[in-house]
């Protein structure tokens, strides 16, 4: 998998830090094996950096009969390794040391108990003879796998009969394609080939290595028995050791390989991860509003305003009847911001919310590869259980303030209504007094008129008519005020619903997208 390139070189410390963070971000999203492998690489790198950097651990790895142990003896100028032909003879790795001072902790970490000091220049070379990677003994293969993952420089010893063996190419060489800078391939036993066949075999081997992604890896033909090519191999190792960089190159390759393994689980998708589109969010808000009973709450606000308006400005003779009816907001327990008694969402409304949540998850995950896309979709629904209570509280809070204040015109209209009642009372009392005086045959009171209508009658009937007209006019104003308050309530409810959607749905989705974006950046840094 091709990884993103970064313009500037990044230090090994930064790359290790990036890989560790990428592994943490991938926890629960990617395969646990890849995550654990990254953490193992980081832990191994931390341990290796704390050990001697003046020494370079070089491992000779190969199959049974490849002449690996013979080459070990030839390079060390000793007979330390027992040589076999048809069966494994190396059971535990052993080390030949040139300049052993300070190498003890490194060999302890590598868990190599068999150590031999070799006379010569104190170059810092630690040459390891590994068991055979194709041994019939499982413990031998595990020992090879452990040390192949830990040493600084790898020398693969192949022989003319098995250099194309799929086992070594598929299990080791191919997976180590990023380690070309810390790898050498040796074709041993070239003395068994006709001279004209040596070049052909070496060229064929280079072609196989190129197919493994190891193009450019040094390939040498040697013969441990005759010594052909051994000085060249030793010189190559000495050059690598003298640079004192093999350990850091190995760790850098490990980090890049681990980052590549993460991308193998989740290849980068084209485009940038983005939050859901506005249209999707609007559809979500509408679905939540319907499920939360916002239309019923808005209607209750309008009816409550009309109810209270009529109770405050209606004809005093009949307005007491209005007080017998419950306030619509109080009936739904919305007046004080408490838990409401709005009707439960219908099956259709619940289904609409589920569809909106799926749409949000689908829109957000469109530019994110699996399995991160699944995590994004899950994030969009991760707090859906909290929606019902949050929406109920939002509706109650947004509507509770709608009964807190009374318009000034209510007091004016109420005063006018009481004046009409006073006029009616005055006219009625005046008429009663006149009736009583006439009944008692007492002198009557002077009765002014308006045209031909006596004032008591005008006051009584006019007050009643004026009260009814004022009440009717107030109903018109109450209806208009109710609609106005309903619009304000709808706006406040919409803002509250959007806030709930943002906190419980959009924010978790955006957090997961940000997590993926950060993960992609960290992997790119680690792989640089």
Automatic annotation (TrEMBL):
Membrane spanning stretches: 418-437, 457-478
One GO cellular component term of this record is:
cytosol
Pfam family of this protein, just one?
A: MMR_HSR1
- Give GO MF terms, alphabetically: GTP binding; ribosomal small subunit binding; rRNA binding
| Keyword match Transmembrane helix | yes
Q: What are the protein's UniProt keywords? A: Membrane, Transmembrane, Transmembrane helix
Name the domain of life. Answer: Bacteria
Q: What is this protein called?
A: ABC transporter
Residues in G domain copies: 58-188
Swiss-Prot/TrEMBL GO biological process terms: ribosomal small subunit assembly
Name the species this protein comes from.
Microbispora catharanthi
Return the InterPro entries for the record: GTP-bd (IPR006073), GTPase_Era-like (IPR005662), P-loop_NTPase (IPR027417)
| Transmembrane listed as a keyword | yes
